[in-house]
Records
---
Amino acid sequence: MPYYLDNAFLLDDPWITVVGCGGTGGFVAEGLCRLFQGRQANIVLVDHDRVEPHNLLRQNFYPGDVGGFKSQVLADRLAKAYGRPVGYSVYPFREYEDQPHEHGYPGLPAYRESLIIGCADNALARKAMAETLPGDPRRWLIDAGNDTNWGQVLVGNVSGNVSWEDPPFSGETCYLAPAPTLQRPDLLTAVSTRPPDVDCAAALDLTDQDPTINQMMASLVLQVVRRMVAGTCPFMALYLDMDLGTVIPTYVTPEAVERTVGTYVE
């Protein structure tokens, strides 16, 4: 029997926050504007870094963007190109989350129902995002991370120690799934192998990082979002290996959830 991730929160004016607008996040942001053309959706971009010349190698920026905040220049460009408001924050995610009314999106409502798409490449940002998960169907987190030529997209909405008193599955719908940081606890302890003050884009020269890896990762993220909107997303994780040319899924099933959290869930 196939199971699919709950999508009720995406059907009526969803709130989608992209955290990290560099390599993968910049392409995800534009893809969301395409995906939601003609549909109501609140799209907010969060990144406190500025565009640097080496970012032009792999990120969704142009020479005229250099020096500006990544979230702001991207939001301004996409708003004009797609004729829709695109919000932004030039603060770290935790500060944006604490004060969502003040950063680039006028009249923000108080909200909890949302989809967070994490495209940050550090453990602190991942921890901050995981800590905002309420452990119920109102908020989901997609985490995208990559290295030189491989990466993973992880999906879930339950973080930390939970009792799983509510049934995660009803019929073919999965309402509760382990957060990315429960699926891969190493995301919270991983230490970057890059030298200090060198970001993902600059790492292209140092590690021969594939120049298309971020566009590949963004495509996988957008496929997950598209299928969640349609109510046909069966994935808890997708693992990309560009050397082998493979994408290996982990399907969201009671058995997969049980393996991850060590709790019987049916």
Note: The CA atoms of residues 1 and 172 lie 7 Å apart.
---
Amino acid sequence: MSFSEEKSLETSYPNDSLPNPNNLSTTPPIQAQESKKGFFRDTFESALVTVIMALFGMTFVVQAVKVPTGSMLNTILVGDHLLVNKFIFGQDGLMLDKFTPHRPIKRGDVIVFKYPNDPTTNYVKRVIGLPGETIEMKGNSIFINGKELAEQYVLADQPLGDPYAPLEVVNVKEAPLGASYKAYYSYEYDPAEAVMEKSLAGQKFAIEAPFQIPPDHYFAMGDNRDNSQDSRYWGTVPRQNIVGRAWVVYYSLDASKDGLGKTTSGYLLVDLFTRTRWNRIGTLIK
């Protein structure tokens, strides 16, 4: 083979296909870089979708609330953390209503609503009177359109000096036909009395006199009837203030006093293990 033939043979290979004597790739290692970028991009997208779904859920589906007072004892305890079903009652006009199951607000529903006198505060009460109804209270008895409401009465006392503790039941009355919940009182009403002896100051709606509930408003009361600031004091709840129906207890912290007279230890992890009411978790609100 002549020198010209050897030169022709060498130049017959394209530049990018010359044999590599060391059998090493000559292309830059960009595949690993692309994989790393893909990992971060996928993680960011997943996190973004999670945040969007969480915001959607908190806006339209559920909301978490903490119960700081005893107005709903013993149905709901102080320190219960609740999930609120926000779509069950619908929102009167939202497109979401067409795709979610919802129903009208019923008597006996435990609702979470914005306090009419301070919309930044959420209240939890039970619906007793519906729009357009006439409601009247005579002692422990409630009359709706002149007919006595079926409620099961429970006589109970608050442990002395401890508003965070559950009520101590003294006597459970027989449930009348149609009663679906318990109403707790700390005394028995004597119909012979002209007025309620333990009527709390400030009660003015439906007390010993008929009161008609306005349209699109609801009369709401706490189950702990002798210790509840409710519609008897400040009036009815507008429909637009209702956030949803109290659904389930997802966590519960016992804030009642211990032997040292303290409500909590001051340490979150200690309280988590020593004050958690494990038996309350998953309790449905009825």
Note: The chain has four helices and 14 strands.
---
Amino acid sequence: MIAAMMTPPKDIPPDFALSSYVYELPPERIARRPADARDASRLLVLDRSAGPAQTGLHFTDLPELLARRFPQGALIIANNSRVFPARVFGRRKTGGRVELLLLTPLPLLDVTPCEHSPGWLCAEAEGLVRTAKRMKEGEAAEFDAPLRAILLERGEYGRCRLRLEWQGEIEEILNDIGHMPLPPYLEREDDAGDRERYQTTYADSHKAGSVAAPTAGLHFTPEVRGQLMAKGFDWAEVTLYVGYGTFSPVRAEDIREHVMHAEHVEVPDETARAIREAKAQGRAVVCVGTTSARSLEGMHQALGKVAAFAGDTSIYITPGYEFQVVDALITNFHLPESSLLIMVSALAGRELIMAAYADALAREYRFFSYGDAMLIV
């Protein structure tokens, strides 16, 4: 079992007690591999005004469901960031094995020529380094490519500041020797199928920087998108480079004490204009995934309005938060005690969300990254 229910402390309101976001999850309910087809996943619909969740649906039902709910159409916002094979294995000069998970998005690397190695490029980056014996600052790891990583400084929670040095194109090197950074709870190594399925069909090749997929988007196929467009829905995109912190549990029993990790967000001007137009017309903004929702709410938090934005956001959405941009959400089923479960509870209400999760478990829905979907309207 992943977690079991606990009684919230008496001095913390239930909405802010971490123990209110615990549920019992049998291991067999974790989707360790994707469904046979992207849009074959099941879909649970949670109407905040109607109460109990609607089950017995599949993702292919989404266009018709949204058309009934929003007959005037709506604007759908998706995160176009691309997962890159950020997990690489190398060796120390001593021969010891090194595992590196590169955390810095490739488009954000500040690349310069290496002064001491003509023909090589270098950039500082952040990563997680795992070795049998602790690496020393200044020590280098070599990989099966013209690539090395020098440990510059150790930080909190295993994060390290590194200097990467390489020849050629860093993205090509990682595509050649890297592994997809699957979530730890899948408890398996990546395989060739994950290169395609742990990636949305609309991921932008110029936005390779996420170390976790924006998983609500994994269900979308070109056919589903085409049906939505045919029903009068518009599509716009943002970029949020999903960081490793998305797997980090909330550790404070009073969830208000949790400090959210920062992630880089880009809201293009054309997306901001589309949102302003939709709002002016009384049309809903439907986000594909919590990362898209955090992008829009983080943009609004930073600017106080809907406008183009590029920068980091560490927005932490808890019950009581008033959503400024997002009207509806397509999402997956999230881990107990996670900031994502807390966020969807802020949107739909904690009791309603936890009841829907209990119903999904009873009906044997599949949970987490490769699992089934939920529509919150």
Note: The mean pLDDT is 95.
